[in-house]
């Protein structure tokens, strides 16, 4: 199942089904795209939904590890480790296995082990690679379609999971690999998206997400706390 989020027609793809969710007025509709893919998969009879972002490659054991964890923890959301690949990295199974070096900001259980997240770890949820039962996804309500453009929708989803009492599990060995592409930190090209989506999040949850980037933008003098919210500083 592939969800194409561009405003053009998708190319020939090796997929059973291809859905198109074009951008909205404010940018890519990643939340709406994930919801559309989930609805289509569930409608086709899928009981386990595995989400993988377009710039991620699944490891050879990802599906098997997610299936095994789901069999044991059917009401949980499952998160496998993600390795950020260097430029020019090969994508063959052996090359990926040799390059495995999961991002250190998240727990990494040994392959075959499952570790339950504490309440304070839900903000570490990543939509790059995760899985959960179709019934659980529907019960939580999926992602909030109000988010358009970059940032915020995955943390919002994680907070909704926590609020609903859905367990978050770190799944060892369900490795995914993020392909290299140029980026900046903080992501200046997404500043307006982060401010808009951050305000949506703050209205719902009483705090701002992406606080590290917000702090960096503020330290650079690009934004300021004005009128009870973060706003651009006029240049």
UniProtKB/TrEMBL annotation:
Keywords: Glycosyltransferase, Transferase. Residues 121-166 form the Galactosyltransferase C-terminal domain. It holds the Pfam family Glyco_transf_7C. Pathway: Cell wall biogenesis; cell wall polysaccharide biosynthesis. Transmembrane segments: none annotated. GO terms for molecular function: glycosyltransferase activity. Residues 28-83 form the Glycosyltransferase 2-like domain. It comes from the Bacteria. InterPro entries: Galactosyl_T_C (IPR027791), Glyco_trans_2-like (IPR001173), Nucleotide-diphossugar_trans (IPR029044). Belongs to the glycosyltransferase 2 family. This is Glycosyltransferase. It comes from Microbacterium radiodurans.
């Amino acid at each position: 199942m592939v969800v194409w989020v561009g405003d053009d027609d998708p190319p020939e793809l090796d997929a059973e089904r291809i859905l198109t969710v074009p951008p909205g007025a404010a940018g890519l509709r990643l939340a709406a795209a994930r919801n559309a893919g989930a609805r289509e998969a569930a409608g086709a009879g899928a009981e386990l939904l595995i989400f993988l972002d377009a710039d991620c490659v699944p490891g050879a054991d990802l599906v098997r590890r997610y299936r095994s964890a789901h069999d044991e923890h059917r009401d949980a959301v499952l998160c496998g480790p993600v390795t950020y690949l260097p430029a020019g990295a090969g994508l063959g199974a052996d090359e990926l296995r040799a390059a495995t070096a999961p991002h250190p900001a998240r727990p990494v259980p040994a392959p075959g082990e499952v570790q339950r997240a504490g309440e304070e770890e839900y903000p570490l949820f990543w939509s790059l690679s995760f899985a959960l039962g179709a019934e659980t996804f529907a019960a939580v309500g999926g992602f909030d379609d109000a988010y358009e453009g970059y940032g915020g929708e995955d943390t919002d989803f994680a907070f909704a999971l926590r609020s609903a009492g859905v367990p978050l599990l770190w799944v060892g060995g369900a490795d995914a690999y993020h392909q290299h592409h140029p980026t900046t930190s903080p992501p200046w090209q997404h500043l307006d998206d982060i401010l808009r989506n951050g305000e949506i999040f703050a209205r719902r949850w009483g705090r701002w997400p992406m606080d590290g980037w917000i702090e960096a933008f503020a330290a650079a003098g690009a934004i300021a706390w004005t009128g009870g919210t973060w706003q651009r500083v006029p240049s």
